[in-house]
Amino acid sequence: MPLRAYLLPLLFVLLAYLPRAEAAVWIVVSEGSKEYAQAAELIREQLKRDDSVGTEVLIKSVADIAQTGFSSVSLFISLGSPALQKLADATAAGRIGRTPVLASLVPRAAVEAQRQRLPVALTAIVFDQPLPRQAALLRYAFPHMHKIGVILGPDSMRQQMALEKAIVELGMQLKVYKVESEGALYPALQRVLDENDVLLAVPDAAVYNGGTIQNVLLASYRHKVPLMGFSPAYVRAGALLALYSTPTQMANQTVRVAKRLIDGVPTAAMQSPVEFVVDINSNVARSLGLRLNEDALRIQLQSREGV
Amino acid sequence: MKNQGGRRKQSLALGLILCVGTAWADTHELAEDGYLGELPVVLSVTRLAQSLADTPGAVTIIDRDMIRRSGARQVSELLRFVPGFIVSGWNGANAIANYHARLDEYGSRLQVFVDGRSVYSSLYLGDTHRGMAEVVMEDIDRIEVLRGSNSAAYGANAFLGVINIITRNSADTRGTLLSVSQGNHGISDQTLRHGWGTEDASYRITAARRTDNGYINKQAFASDYPLASDDTDLNQVSFRGDLRLSAIDELQLQLGSTRHKADDGDSTFGNAPYSAGNAASYAMARWNRQLSATESINLSATFDDERIRSTKIEDPRKLGLFPFVVPVDQGGQSQRAQIEFSHTRQYTEAMRMVWGTAWRRETAQSRGLFNTDQTYAQTQLRFFGNLEWRIAPQLLLNAGGLLEHNSKVGESFAPRLMLNYQPHPEHTFRIGATKATRTPSLFELHGSNPVINPNTGAPLICPAGFGGACPVGKHVEWHIRATGKAQPERIYSQELGWLGDFREYALTVDVRAYKEHIRGLLTPRRLPALIDEDINDYVNGKDADVQGLEYQLQWRPWAGGRWLFSQARTRVRSDTQTDLPAGTPHNSYNAAWFQDLPGEWELGLMYAHVSSMNMRWRSAQRLPAYGVTNLRVAKRFRLGATRSEVALTVQSLAGDHYEFIRPSAADPVVPVVPRRVFMTVRMEL
């Protein structure tokens, strides 16, 4: 027989021995914050520990998405909005196909922005605390204050109706001040502080960022209006209290949801964090003459949610 | 973890992407920066104000809400809310707020600050009533009144208490404000304010005018001057700038000028009505730097200038004494410059310390007050410090001291110790003691005010032929001829206090019981060499013991409602100044109810009660207890972006009444406080 006749079977044999890329879980990590890398490690560790997850768990960087070859990936877990964006780009270029994507450590706004470009099989765990929980915390922390003020910017304006519903349902009054750009912030800030008892910070880069936060905190302190923020940095900076979920808490939730996705169990497409932290700046609380207990408030919120 | 594949190709691609990636990261913030990013510490410990439970003393806070709803036209009227203060005026143009009444007729035993600038007059007796009148109501953010001596923190002259008027940051008053009040008895006030700038550099200019015809006279006996001469015409302009020079530096600038015309004169001794004019200007710069989250420094410089033009006309022709009119010059000018430095640091979680130093120089020149054209000056240097030490979670100690060196009277030391014990979040107990001093004013040291013969320029002497009324050769009137022997007055006080903070009832109660021993009150005493004449030196001759109970209540019983009640029971005893006790009412209280009504209507009802007293020693008649009711009704509304308010205020609802003094044979013409009704329209654009 000619050499050619042996080539094909040889090829098959060779192929059998080539290292086969198994169906793996890829955790795509954004750059820019060490929280992502830490969360990725945590997720990988917990997934590997679970024997029911038979696949490999690999941590990839955003750059790794740039190339092709995803057929062996069973689940993408993206941490951070850059990673999510890269995955969306890959989907648009047709390289991802129908592989499910679990987006974590992202704000809701970032998910909404990528919604159209991502496959239907997208599940997201977002930073945004559920509005009923935020409203409940306001109620428990400030029982004598009824007027809640919010400043909404271009990114957060879509939350107005849901906010109103959550606040009014608990017997409080919501006043909304809309700001199109940073320049319009300070007149709105003046009015919201004059007319309300508490300022609830709703995340929006045009309104609350490193450049504006100093003025927002100083002005609200001058007016003796407590500010409720959404991250530990806010409390350190001077916000009276904040409601947020740590990257660790979100990583734990990501692991649970990832397992369900791997097992093919249906799960909600957009999920708010389940575990959370109530953080209080005790110096500011004392200065404002307010008495707040972090643990008591957290327990109150948890029992309200039946946890 | 790298995947299989061409590593070289991969690293090139990675390199390219990293370049692009970094560029991207520089120009775009990560969407989740708000959640994961870092922020600077803005409200550092040194920036935060003390809570009421930690304050070393009883404080009454008059906030903007109370100021607006009270309908008050000047600061003295607001002090009704503070237990122990009696508010009136020696005439309609000179409003006085006295703490412990007779002890402090001109407010010279109180320290009054406007944004940290002391506003007393370097002329005459260091009175603060004019300085207090020259603050625009609309610009005030709040007034903090600390009852009881606090020289340790606020300097000598914080003898009986401290009034801290804090104006609004110019960043909070951007836009335009117009307020107009019009009413009876000549009430016509206007305020126009414009603020502009950004949060990092904001400014405002306020121009205000307040005019009225003062009180009215009810004649018990015939008088040459049926109408009280006590009109007010106050015009002022002020500027404030707040600049954020950097992330850690702030600068506050203030400039102001006031022209205050106050009429005076009554019909005794043919004292014709006349106008006193006071022109005051000031400039202030205050720089604050946050050295770290736990340390800050403050440097301030202030300058005050005051010119008073005031000529009383004594008309002895009616009494057949002299065939000419005698002008009595009460004018003069004074200047004051002060530089102050302070350092604040939170050393540990439990310990915070403030210390500082201040230098002040003041000069005064007045022919009428000093009988010379010479300029008198005094300089003082102060060192102060206060330690806040949380000995245990429930026990806070405030220990402070002030060392003052005065070029005229030497050194004085004023220590203060206060312990706050908070066994339960709702209860705080205070116990403390303090020693304070009041330095003599330049007038008390060098004053000399003979009535001058306008023809000769020498002190006016009684001519022959008038017998006992004006013994021949004696001076017609020479009340004060100070020899410079005056020493600082001293006060030792002890107090016990309780603060109850009941959150679920929205109720706070503050009670203060005190005992004050005042030694060396400066009072006029006849000079021994001139014992036949009524010529006096200021000597530290009198003592007084004051004991009392003061309390205040704040209650928000339902949404939109606010109740305020304050009461003071005071007893003054003095073996040496026997008329003093009568001058302080034993019991005074103030009640206020502010209520929001549907449809953006507001109602304010206030009642002040003062028990019987005798303000002026001449009068034999004791003024019986009186009460004053004030009412205010207002409607707020919005027209587009404009917020407006129309209000009707009635002061002394029940009608005209006497305050401080009632008519008698010795004082036939006394001021009567009229019922005042005025309408205010206020617009914010």
Radius of gyration of chain B: 29 Å
Global outline of chain A: elongated
Mean pLDDT over the full residue set of chain A: 86
- Overall residue-averaged pLDDT value of chain B: 85
Q: If helices are DSSP runs of H or I spanning 4 or more residues, what is the number of helices of chain A? A: 12
Helix/sheet category of chain B: mainly beta
Tally the beta strands of chain B.
36
Helix content of chain B: under 10%
Query: What is the number of helices of chain B?
Result: 8
Give helix % range of chain A: 40-55%
**Percentage beta strand of chain A:** 15-25%
Unreliable segments of 5+ consecutive residues of chain B: 1-6, 10-28, 218-226
Distance between the amino and carboxyl termini of chain A: 74 Å
The counted number of beta strands of chain A is 12
Uncertain spans of chain A, ≥5 residues at pLDDT below 50? none
Whole-angstrom Rg of chain A: 24 Å
Description:
The complex is a heterodimer of chains A (307) and B (685). Chain A contains twelve helices and twelve strands. Chain A is an alpha/beta fold. In chain A, helix 2 (34-49) packs across helix 10, helix 5 (131-141) crosses helix 6 (160-169) and helix 5 (131-141) crosses helix 12. With 685 residues, chain B is mostly beta strands. In chain B, a hairpin with a 2-residue loop joins strand 20 (376-392) and strand 21. At the A-B interface, strand 2, helix 7, helix 8, helix 9 and helix 11 of A face helix 1 and helix 2 of B.
Short description:
The complex is a heterodimer of chains A (307) and B (685). With 307 residues, chain A is an alpha/beta fold.
Can you tag this structure with a few keywords?
heterodimer, A: 307 residues, alpha/beta, 6-stranded parallel β-sheet, 6-stranded mixed β-sheet, 12 strands, 43% helix, 19% strand, elongated, B: 685 residues, mainly beta, 22-stranded antiparallel β-barrel, 5-stranded mixed β-sheet, 54% strand, disordered N terminus
